[in-house]
Amino acid sequence: MDYLPVFLDIRGQPCLVVGGDEVAARKSALLLRAGAQVTVHAPTFCAAFDATPVAARVLRRVAGFDEVDIAGFVLAIAATDDSTNRAVAAAARARGIPVNVVDQPALCSFIMPSIIDRSPLIVAVSSGGVSPVLARLLRARLESLIPAGYGRLAALAAEFRDRVKARVQPQQRRRFWERVLQGPIAELVFSGREAEARDALQQTLDDTRLALSGGEVALVGAGPGDPDLLTFRALRLMQQADVVVYDRLVSQPILNLVRVDAERIYAGKERSMHTLPQEDINHLLVRLAKEGKRVVRLKGGDPFIFGRGGEEIDTLAAQGIPFQVVPGITAASGCASYAGIPLTHRDYSQSVVFVTGHLQDGTMNLNWPALAQPRQTIVFYMGLLGIDVLCRNLAAHGLPAATPVALVQQGTTSEQRVITGTLDTMPELVRTSAVKAPTLIIIGEVVRLRERLNWFK
User: Fold this and answer.
1) Count of C-beta atoms within a 10 Å radius of residue 233
2) Taking burial as the number of CB atoms within 10 A of a residue's CB, which of 22, 108, 213, 336 is the most buried?
3) Per CATH, which fold does 14-112 belong to?
4) Is 368 helix (H, G, I), strand (E, B) or coil?
5) What's the average model confidence in pLDDT over 79-100?
6) Cα-Cα end-to-end distance for the chain
7) Which residue numbers are catalytic?
8) In what order do the strands lie in the sheet with 263-266?
9) Positive or negative CA dihedral for 19, 22, 25, 30?
10) Beta-strand pair 376-381/273-274
């Protein structure tokens, strides 16, 4: 280990920054965030020093650096030319003052890490000055795994720390906090329901037998297929789940992100082939939660857009099961974006309509006149088997036969395939192209933009 990681308390302490450029301004702002009293030495100052919060809170000394200037400071940062940086480092070391010299690790007695700030929780990442860019990349990865709400969670833990210490035996304390900090109470904090979280924590403390034994369900949108499109919250809940109940449209790369030891239950539904009927899925979620398990109901796209998510949480609510809903990127948005087709565009479309294309007795009971409007984009979910019906009806109700149509198969994945045609030609293209679900059908003038906006290959 080349450096000892430490966290310095510099609240109210005098700290020195030498340099007047934008880097020095950023370092000054960082010290201010930590509560320091900041003095900056430089012959000139860039415009960044006139911006808040630096302008009002930094003491500027318009002068070059002299070694006597370092007296009285508890920490120094040098961000100027090479000779001055060396002088600052030498003066600081001679007086035992911690010093950081920007981009010159050999002159530093401490390294400024990349910071994930969830105050009072702080995470710092450093490469020891070898590769700051790599440290920043790792920080970006960690940012996705540490929700902003962790600061509020840490504050809640601090509020209850003494009470827990007084009520919970030392040998049980670690387990108690583990359940609090990664269970339903934490999720209440993350979703902004801090008053409920505080009440739940107090209730658990009043009767530690509860120990958060009750389960909960998270209805999570998995997006259209690309795992990079998952939300931070979706990924976190997938990593915490005891059981994951997933649909057919959830891609394997996304399932690979589920906690390794979590139970997985397939509840996929295809036309006329339901592994579990919807009512059975609803009751399965209730049963699993009542067993005290953390359940993730993982659904392709967004759970509230043709995902029957409303039916599932209606059952949970009726049974008094705690739940939350995590939106996902719906197939319409994801597939259209990856196909290079804007769903709206000032020159082509002023509205967009999402429609389910399920056939009933060979017909689609849709409001065709409302759909066949000019300057409107229509997105059909599950419309593959009814492609003849929908194209024929839209043309019969006023859309020109030459209206552009795009069919996106397995959108956003490495297997994505896009077929373009018109209302007149698309049914035959589908018959001759061996198309298979999952597909999304986009109809409207915006499809013409694909030829020049297609970016995903």
Assistant:
1) 18
2) 336
3) Rossmann fold (3.40.50)
4) helix
5) 94
6) 44
7) 247, 269
8) 263-266, 243-246, 294-299, 216-221, 323-326
9) negative
10) unpaired
* Residue at 61: amino acid letter: R
Q: Which long-range contacts (CB under 8 A, 24 or more apart) does 311-317 make?
A: 311/278, 311/282, 312/219, 312/281, 312/282, 312/285, 313/217, 313/219, 315/282, 315/283, 315/285, 315/286, 316/217, 316/282, 316/285, 316/286, 316/289
Residue at token pair 């790369």: 253
Q: Which amino acid is at 254?
A: I
* Per-residue buried b or exposed e for 194-226, using 16+ beta carbons within 10 Å of the residue's own CB: beebbebbeebbeeeeeebebbbbbbbbbbbbb
Give me the mean pLDDT over the 203-210 stretch.
74
Mutual angle of helices 278-290 and 309-318, in 10-degree steps: 40
- As a whole number of angstroms, the longest Cα–Cα distance in the chain is 90
417: tokens are 């395939």
CATH code assigned to 332-453: 3.30.950.10
| Contacts for 40-48: CB closer than 8 Å, 24+ residues apart | 40/16, 41/16, 41/17, 41/65, 41/69, 42/18, 42/80, 44/20, 45/20, 46/20, 46/21, 46/22, 48/21, 48/22
Superfamily holding 214-329: Tetrapyrrole methylase, N-terminal domain (3.40.1010.10)
Place of tokens 């006597």: 68
Determine contact, residues 259/239, Cβ cutoff 8 Å. yes
* Token couple for 429: 């293209």
> Position 42: which residue type?
A
Per-residue tokens: 420:
């373009």
Distance, C-alpha 336 to centroid of its chain: 20
Task: Please check the confidence at residue 317 and state whether its pLDDT lies above 90.
Answer: yes
Name which of 174-178, 293-297, 370-374 the model is least confident about.
174-178
Amino acid identity, residue 451?
A: E
Question: DSSP class of residue 51?
Answer: S
Which residues have C-beta within 8 Å of that of residue 22, sequence separation ≥ 6?
A: 46, 48
Measured CA to CA in angstroms, residue 269 lies from 163, 227, 238, 254, 335 at distances of: 49, 21, 21, 18, 21
pLDDT digits (tens, 9 = 90+) for 132-185: 889 888 888 888 778 788 899 999 999 999 999 988 888 778 778 877 887 788
Is the link from the previous residue into 53 a cis peptide, with omega within 30 of 0?
yes
The encoded tokens of residue 87 equal 């002088």
